[in-house]
Amino acid sequence: MSQFDGRDGVSYVACEGKVYDVSGSFIWKKGRHWVTHRAGQDLTEALNDAPHGDQLLQRFPLIGELVD
Question: Percentage of residues in the chain with pLDDT exceeding 90?
Answer without folding.
Answer: 49
